[in-house]
Automatic annotation (TrEMBL):
The keyword Cytoplasm does not apply. GO terms for cellular component: plasma membrane. One of its GO terms (biological process) is peptide transport. It is a peripheral membrane protein. This is ABC transporter domain-containing protein.
Length: 334
């Protein structure tokens, strides 16, 4: 397994006390596989992503394991961690295009991690690689001489993808990497990410609040709610035939990728996520759930294999859901 989270927990210490942002996540990404993580703002997606490269602030208490090729990133010394960043795992985050250095040419910025991590590579060879990477992400090699302000938002986000791939990492994390782009450009960049993953055999962990974005690119999808994974399964199936009422509501809120009209009706997702400092008793989703039963207010459901449509009530090992209603084989939408 390329990446494994084992009972990952992250709690922020702050003025309001202890805020549990990630509450026991177990997940795995294989080499060459794409795993999507979906969920509304505040459910802990970015905390999960930042934990992988140990980019969390000092106020974060982290426990559990994050294994990259079997090595626990949480136990690693800083020297080893510096080597793993870019070469083992790299990240493209939301608005990353704004983090380019305004006064340095694009080519130089892409070449930088190569020069830092590959002692034997000469500046000329790194510059050639930067140009090749630009071409691979659909930009002319001549763009290497441009400054960031000379590029559009979509072009700059492509540069960030080129940079994330510069040192041939085994794992790429994309955190809302296309969210700031307009819908047409978003579709192109998603297509590019999907091609690069297939071509280079990297593992991809892709984070988005929009399930339809994930189902366009990912093999598997995990849905997060209030710091926990509440459903996991093949991305297309989680999107089309959710087995948790929260995933069903999320799918209804973002029906078709690239259809702006459809996005205007966030049907099915009423109310707000709970305050992590004061989580409700039982299932965290219960206050917003249309199919909740009495048990949901008393006990917190575990993530278990659930039956899907046509399985005659037999649980499908590939589909897991933390919902008592789904675990009984009942419909999760009214
Ligand atoms: N540095 C921090 N200090 C304290 N609390 C934080 C910090 N960063 C995030 N949080 C809180 O942790 C919870 C999870 O936040 P996180 O950013 O991981 O969620 P998210 O799903 O990625 O949301 P978004 O898409 O808005 O970034 C939220 O309640 C957030 O307010």
């Amino acid at each position: 397994m390329l990446l494994e989270f084992k009972d990952l927990r992250v709690t922020y210490r702050g003025s309001r006390g202890r805020l549990p942002a990630v509450r026991g996540v177990d997940l795995a990404v294989d080499a060459g596989e794409t795993l999507g993580i979906a969920g509304e703002s505040g459910c802990g997606k970015s905390t999960l992503a930042m934990a992988v490269l140990r980019l969390l602030p000092k106020s974060a208490e982290v426990s559990g394991e994050i294994l990259l090729d079997g090595e626990d990133l949480l136990q690693m010394g800083w020297g080893r961690l510096r080597a793993v960043r870019w070469t083992g795992a790299s990240i493209v985050f939301q608005g990353a295009m704004h983090s380019l250095n305004a006064v340095q040419r694009i080519g130089r910025q892409i070449a930088e991690p190569i020069l830092v991590h590959e002692a034997k590579t000469t500046p000329a060879a790194a510059a050639r690689r930067a140009e090749a990477l630009l071409e691979r992400v659909g930009l002319p090699a001549s763009r290497a001489r441009s400054y960031p302000h000379e590029l559009s938002g979509g072009q700059r986000q492509r540069v960030m993808i080129a940079m994330a791939l510069a040192c041939d990492p085994d794992l790429v994390i994309a955190d809302e990497a296309t969210t700031a782009l307009d819908v047409m450009v978003q579709a192109q960049v998603l297509q590019l990410i999907a091609e690069l993953v297939t071509e280079r055999g990297v593992g991809l962990m892709m984070i988005s609040h929009d399930l339809s974005v994930l189902s366009a690119v990912c093999d598997r999808a995990a849905v997060m709610y209030a710091g926990r994974i509440v459903e996991q399964g093949p991305a297309g199936e989680v999107f089309a035939n959710a087995r948790h009422p929260y995933s069903a509501a999320l799918s209804a809120a973002f029906p078709v990728i690239g259809d702006p009209a459809a996005r205007m009706s966030p049907g099915g997702l009423a109310g707000d996520p709970p305050d992590p400092v004061r989580l409700p008793e039982g299932c965290s989703f219960r206050p917003r759930c249309a199919v909740a039963v009495e048990r949901c207010g008393a006990e917190s459901p575990e993530l278990l294999a659930v039956p899907v449509r046509g399985s005659a009530g037999v649980a499908d090992a590939a589909r897991v859901s933390a919902c008592f209603v789904a675990q009984e084989g009942m419909p999760v939408v009214l």
